[in-house]
Amino acid sequence: MPNSLKTTLLGVLFLLFLCFSVSAAEGIVTVKPRESDALLANPGMGWETFHRFADEDPNLAGLPSSTAYFRWYWYQVEPEKDEINWELFDETLRKAHKAGQKLAFRIMCCGTGSRYHYSPKWLKEQGYAGFEYSRGDGPKHWAPDLDDPEVLEEHLELIRAIGRRYDGHPDVAHVDLGSVGLWGEWHMSGTGHENPSHVTCRRIIDTYLESFQETPMVMLIGPLEELKYATSKGTGWRADCLGDMGGFSDGWCHMRDFYPQQIKRAGITDTWKTAPVAFETCWDMRKWKKEGWDIERIFNWALAQHASYINNKSAPLPEGTRSQVERLLRKLGYRFVLRSLKHPAAVEPGGTLSVEMKWENVGVAPCYADYKPAVRLVGRDGKPRCTELCEGTVRDWLPGTFTNKKAIDLPDDLKPGEYSLQVAIVRPDTKEPVVKLAIEGRGDDGWYPLSEVTVR
Predict the structure, then answer these.
(1) Would you say 394 and 374 are in contact if contact means Cβ atoms under 8 Å apart?
(2) How many CB atoms lie within 10 A of CB 126?
(3) What is the C-alpha end-to-end distance of the chain, expressed in Å?
(4) Domains, the chain, ranges and CATH?
């Protein structure tokens, strides 16, 4: 054998040893992939960027991010009556896709900056009902009265239109159920005005639910009745002051005096099993470090709530906290490890290849998309054969272990030879890999070549 060929074969064998171990007994091959501690950017979870994209956010500093989070005011989305700014959505989606991210967004009607109108100016000009407000000593603003039937219908139709266009869009991660109150946060604190009635709020929630039946949604933790209602209908929940250990008052903080109690009052302890939990940092982590708050404890609490997302507002990480963030990201959301793969060493053309896989989700939450594990055979020519979806979806993979079995009926005309047995988690409609596994050996196409099968 030429020395060059020996070197190549030894290199391949060494690479296989690094990625997984293989054993065979009585014609059965068992593969145990090597677990990876790499930080992974996977859809529907992770460290969010804020009004930036992963490929243009220097404060990520190499951290993976699969979600770009944006908030838009109604005036930005519908600057003229019945003329929705679809370019705003489409261009943001395009940039997110280019950066390897999905988009999460919220629509808002009220703000507190320098503008007078945060909802469309045409509402006031055309005589729709509204009111002026200011926050503290701040400037005056005008807001539409969502309790007015005509105003409400205009806003509900906006939600419906966005849902018709983007519900189930492959590049939309989730919708942050907003619309009501300052910044869409379901409160009018400091303005002297109350939220719309519970009846109006329920109609808004119902319209989001009807309009986004495929896309996950999250509801802000603040308004108890609306939180209970939305989560009972299938939404997840969101809290936007993660980490507050006393920044507003020496005797009160969100982390100790509000969040645990509100979770219990609303009965949302197990919501994470079917819908996502998302957090936004109070201020950002620089405030936590400056105040001397226990960052590890804050992150542990978020993980104990089975969080899938954390948004640090694209702020820089404080010095000395990188390791804590990386530890968080190895638990946040889902993280799938293939523990073992078992199959016959050889099969006949037209026979059945039985594959058994043992998985573990070492994260704290499931994946909320209907992705499926899949296996395929690939010939020596690099062409895939027999790509098969397994039963069930990863939506059911709560933290813990799972077993998948798949019987693959091989074509009668499958040529004898050696075939690579490969595994991936894929979109069922395209059979394209979408989830990175926490094991070594990922191929350039997203599949994991883990073993070989002889067709004789």
Answers:
(1) no
(2) 11
(3) 25
(4) 3-38+335-455 (2.60.40.1930), 46-329 (3.20.20.80)
The DSSP code sequence of 361-420 is E-SSS---S--EEEEEEE-TTS-EEEEEEPSS-GGG--SEEEEEEEEEE--TTPPSEEEE
Burial bucket for residue 108 (CB in 10 Å: 0-12, 13-18, 19+): buried
Query: Taking every pair of C-alpha atoms in the chain, what is the biggest distance, in angstroms?
Result: 88
3-state DSSP assignment of residue 370: coil
> CB-based burial of residue 52 (10 Å sphere; 0-12 exposed, 13-18 middle, 19+ buried)?
buried
CB atoms within 10 A of CB 369: 21
Phi, psi of 386 (to 5 degrees): 55, 50
What is the pLDDT at residue 23? 62
Confidence (pLDDT) at 22: 58
100: nearest Cα among 32, 174, 43: 43
User: Do 213 and 195 contact (CB within 8 A), yes or no?
Assistant: no
Block means of pLDDT (10 residues each) for the chain, length 456 residues? 42 48 74 98 98 98 97 98 98 98 98 97 98 96 98 98 97 97 97 97 98 98 98 98 96 98 98 98 98 98 98 98 98 98 96 97 97 96 94 96 94 94 97 98 97 95
Instruction: Give start and end residues of each alpha helix (H) in 116-148.
Output: 121-125
